[in-house]
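Chapter summary example.
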Amino acid sequence: MLEVADVLRRHGEAFRARSAGHLDRSALRVMGAVEVCRTAALGGHVARCGDCGHTAISYNSCRNRHCPKCQAGAAREWFQARATDLLPVAYFHVVFTLPAQVAAIAFQNKAVVYALLFEAAAETLRTIAADPKHLGAEIGATMVLHTWGQTLTHHPHVHCIVPGGGLAPDNKRWISCRPGFFLPVRVLQRLYRRLFLDKLRAAHRAGRLRFFNELAPLADTTTFDRHITPLRRTEWIVYAKRPFAGPEQVLAYLARYTHRIAISNRRLVALDDSHVAFTWRDYAHGSTKKVMRLEAHEFLRRFLLHVLPDGFQRIRHYGFLANGHRRAKLAAIRRLLAVPPPPTASTGSDEPTAREPGEPGPPCPCCGAVMTLIEVLPGTRRRRSQRLDTS
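The structure predicted for these 391 residues follows.
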């Protein structure tokens, strides 16, 4: 199967040379990490089956959160840790997007504007839900930032997974939303637009935004205000998808979306000396599956558009799911719903752990007997550990 790593190994050096001076350190680190992931460069382990003699080499992964190979294991770990947070209630999926004019500003100010996107979306949901005219309760939400469209263009938006109800103000009742309906989308849209633009304007006034190239004139306050004022009258895209059919669908969705990156290896279909081809879905025409063929340097440019700032958390939790009081709040909600506490979560990973020769390893793929670690392979390159989203 083709991999993004194959594209980098074949075209990465030429792309670096062509883009010299335009790639920041984060992008260069991602390129280097993906290129060597699960290769001899990072070292690994050799294990042998004591029964049939089968020998297997497992190379270490780079653990970079933008690596297509690493995110499947990271998603499983996160999913197993979060599965116990599920409640036996309906769940809803709400998406908040940014218009193109703001997305351009976001690209030059990723950390600031992406954070504002989270803040505005969370405040919108919590404010409308707390209004007695709508729900009158404290809700919880898990939000995941995606920055791409199907063709790898820059399209920042947050996916919000929200239980269908919340805690009453006195914390003594669970208030359920109406069947099949969470909150009015038009009301959410208008408040979100106002909150986001107010926050964006405040960030500009505080000198937190930087502008380059064609956006350089926006550094001027008057020009900036003139640029965003029309956006207060346009329709921003906020939409609610159909509610999930049950907890199993919520789990499947979270496992699929939380650690998704701009493009997975399975979408790549062809690679040659000049181009990369990959599949994409044309949602404007009935989700038709199509193939796009891009010049290799353009493919890499688009892939690197979605490298997040170092330390930026792309999975966040709000309301009664916020990390500070999640366990206590969920325990109280389960008592109100008269449901038993969840089983203790277990975690696992495909990543070879630091073991010593002689220790037991995974079962043999040939006969099922226990394989024993017989050798640790040193790497030729130091692995740079990157903090994954564990919130």
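To summarize the output: The CA atoms of residues 111 and 312 lie 7 Å apart.
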